[in-house]
Every structure is written in structure tokens, then in C-alpha cells.
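Hi! If you just cloned this repository, the fastest way to understand the data is to look at a raw example. We've pasted two of them here, unedited. The first protein comes first, obviously.
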Amino acid sequence: MSALLKRALLCGAIGLSLTACGGSDNNDGNSDGSGIQSPPVLPPAGTGVTVNTAAAWQQYLTTPRRWEISGQQNGNAYNLALVLTPGPISTFPFNGQLASTTTQSLRLTFAGVVNADTEGTLYHTNNRLIGIVGGSGSNARCAVIRTPFTPLPDNSSVGASGTIISLDSMAGCSPNAARVGTVTLTWSVEQDLAVTLFCLSTLRQDSAGVPAGSETACVQSNAAGELAGGARLTLRRTDGTEISGKNY
């Protein structure tokens, strides 16, 4: 089905309202050639469903996946994509703790130009998030635990939600780096057009508590927490611009 970007992306002085001509998700579960699997599409769920959100979170962290929403506007191609890439066990640079890693990228490309991009590496042990690193080398910035990780429940009804973890955003990754804000990760279970969604939202605030952008990734899930090909992706930038689309 077609996908709709519900609000305009303000690019300089030009407002662009984007309407998709079709999704590019490989719904048969085949690889795109990079080794990242496009999840299969599950049938829509009925009302009163529950989701094993603990299992959905584990799949999110440990399985390479790609969800895409793409189309054409005025002859220009655009693409909104969420990519998850599990990596090797690595040292979290802020405190030296060994952890599994998963790179998460949410990116909007219009006419071949990246208009919005959020990317970070999640560090986790036994599915418990211990920190996030954005950037690399001398430009790397760490987000470190502010409030403890709260495990997701095994059985969550549509409408349920909770906070996974809050982190302090640091100016770098050294132990003496200054705190420059916070990052809060929340989960929810939602239903949209009879599609059941496991949603993760990341809210960033500066040191004064002023919102500094956010993103929400909602991906289709069944009761067992198996993630599928449906997705609704939303980027909110610091200027208030919201870019949102879905592929179902």
C-alpha cells in the first residue's frame, strides 16, 4: 500500500509535502544483498491482542533488520529508512564495560540528499541497555545511565507503555566529560489500521530540559514479539519539523 508523510519537511525556505508511491520493503523476507533481512509481513491482528514486548525488544537488539518507506515527489525520489545492525562485543568507551552492540540508523533522504539522520550504537548486556554512543573518534559522544534499565514485560496489551531507561548525554566519552542533556527511551504497544505495533521512542533534551528532537520507530509485531515488515517511522527535529510515514 502507499505511504504518507503526514507533515511537511521544511528544507530551507521550501516546504515539501511528500506522498509515497509505494513501499520498498522486501516482504518475502529476502536479503537486500547487505545481509540485512527485511522482516516478513504478518497478518493484521484483531482487537484485545497482547505482545511479548520483552521478546520484541530482544529481536530489535539482536537481529539485523531494515524497514523502508519510499516514493516519488515531483520527480524526486525520497526514502525514510530504519536499519538495525548488530555488531561485535565491544568496550563502552565511557567506563570500559564490555557489551554487545547494535547500530541503529533512522534516515530521510530526498532527491539523493540526506535531510535528517540519527544514528547511534546501542551497548547492551543480556538485553539491558547500558549506554549509547553517537559519532566516532574524537567526535564520539556517550549517553550513560541516569536511571536504571527497566525490563520490558512479557505480556503487554495495546495501549500499554513504559520507560526503558534514562541516560545523561555527555559532551564526549571520557569520564570527565560534561553533561549536556538527557536521553529517555520509552516503549509502547499501539494499533494502527488493525496493525499491531511495538514502538520505541527516543526523546532528547538539553541541559535545561528543553526538547532537542526525538524519533519514534513503530514496527509490526505479533503476540510472541516476532517483528514483521510493517512500520511507522517518525523524526522530530529540533526546529519542530516532523517527518512521519508508514508502509501499510
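Ok, and the second one:
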Amino acid sequence: MIFRKTRKKIKKDFVKTRKRIKNAKSLQGITKKQRLTYPKLVACLSIFFEKIIQKFSKSKKSNSNTSQKKNNITSKSPLSTKVVLDASITRTQNLTKFLDALSSYVFILTNMTIVELNKLKKYPDISGNNARYILNLATKKQDKFEVIFLEETKLSVDDSIVQYCVDNIDTTLLLTADKGMASNAKKLGVETKYIDCVGNISEPKFNLVTLFSARMLGNKLLISTFTSARKSIRVLSNDKTYEEGLIELKSGDNILIASNKKDYITFSHYKIISIRPENNCQLIFSKRIYERKDINSLPKAEYKNFIRNFNHNLQNQLIYH
């Protein structure tokens, strides 16, 4: 039976029902208080009540999700999910706390991550300590670790790991301290846990990163400048530009790097802050270049010139627009 009511009567019933909804715990509770079946109640209050139902359902769902996120690092079950570790987490203080919170999960180390950890473990700093901790833990608790082999492609190490997570999106959780990697993974639908890196209090307030293209030789920080079809590195030091050869970096030097990916070019501008193997520079600017108009939108003429020169050397690799 459908009740026919005037709009004025519907509004009056709407106000009365809204008060009762505040204390209701379910739709069944609302219909019981109204002494009507659910279909009759909807018909009685027309579109006004339908809107309340939508809000009520969304609110319940939102509260449930919020509560679940507060109580758990991840909503995924340890029985069906494996945690993929990225080497960037070695920069994090109290790393053991995060790994202990995920102790019921199986951890995944890719062959690429293991190579990076073996390089980092040589350094007497927080990254070295954490790298050694992860490798020792993997040796002691082999039942809690899996090693996955990823073939080398044109993708970077980070992109290869993210792609693995995408290919296994229902069974993986990515743990990283790399903001760019975390953002990219989340955009692709990968459940990601980003760990903030807590730096030394004596460091400047801006975020420090490691220039992986450079390497320490004794007490010198060196980088090779070149331009190829896949990558270009340019150093700006004391009003001089270096595009070829091995360069010794100094504090204040600026480094421009462009890399050719499958569907885009990555561009980054770094400034050297200190001469050391880890956390030695500041990321000034970064952008992905998909087409020519993206080059024109770059904020500095130096950036545009650098990318145009690099793109000119690409032989039908990327930008056709």
C-alpha cells in the first residue's frame, strides 16, 4: 500500500523521523520506531527519507573504515598478504617498530632490493644499521621472508618493484620511505604504507635525499656527466656547466638529471648539501614529461633547454606530440 501525502505533510514527517534517526543503530530500528515496514516508510517520506538513508549508510561505512584504519596498519589479512620491502625504509629511525607491527606477515625482498641493501650495509650510519638488520633478520627467519627475482628492464628499480605490486595487487602491501614511489604506487591502486624518515635534528628543515647517481671515492663525491638515449646528467658548479666526464661534486653544486622511461621522461633538479654517501642533497624540483607542452610548462629556461637537448637525442623514443 502506498500512502499519498502532501509535500507539507512529508516535510513534517521528515523532521520527526530525522530526530529518531539520531539514536537509531540500524535501518530496522528506524522502521520499528515508525511502526511501518521499510517499503512503506520510504514511500511515506519520499525523496527526503531516501537522502537520509544514503547519508546513514555512508556514515556507517565511513566510521567502520576509519575505526579499522586506526586499529591496524593495514586492513589486509596476514594469511593472504605479503609485505614488499623497499630499501628506502633503511633511512627510517625506529624501523624495528614498524617491522614488529607487521611480524605476522611474510616479507618480500626483490633481488634489486637485496643489491641495494648490500651496498648500504657498508655505511656506519642509520641506513647501514637498518640494512644489516633487515639482511640478518631475513637470514634468521627464512620462513618469514621470500626472495622474488625481477628481470632488469627499462624501468627503474622503484618502478619495477611497484609494477610487481601492481601485478600482485590483491596479495601485496608496499612498505616504503620514498614519497614519489608511495605516490606512484597509490595512484596505481597498490596498498601502500609510507614511513616518514626522521632526520638528525642538526640537519636543515628541508627533506634530504640521496643522490644515487653519485658515489664516494675516499672523501670525494663523484658523478659521471653524460647524455645517452636513456639518461642525461648535467652539473652546474660555480657558473660552469659540465656535461661530459667525471666531476667532483661540492656543496652548492646543482645537478640536473633526465631519464627516459617507457611512456615519459623523468626530470629532477638536486642541490648538493653535504659531501657524504647518504642524505647528501636536496630535491629542488621534479616532474614527469609526457609531451612537448609539458616542457614549455617548466618553470626555468635552464630546465627547458636541458630537456629539449635530451629529447633531441632520443631517436623516436618518446615525445611525438
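That's it. A detail worth noticing about the second one: Residues 82-194 form a domain with the Rossmann fold fold (CATH 3.40.50.1010).
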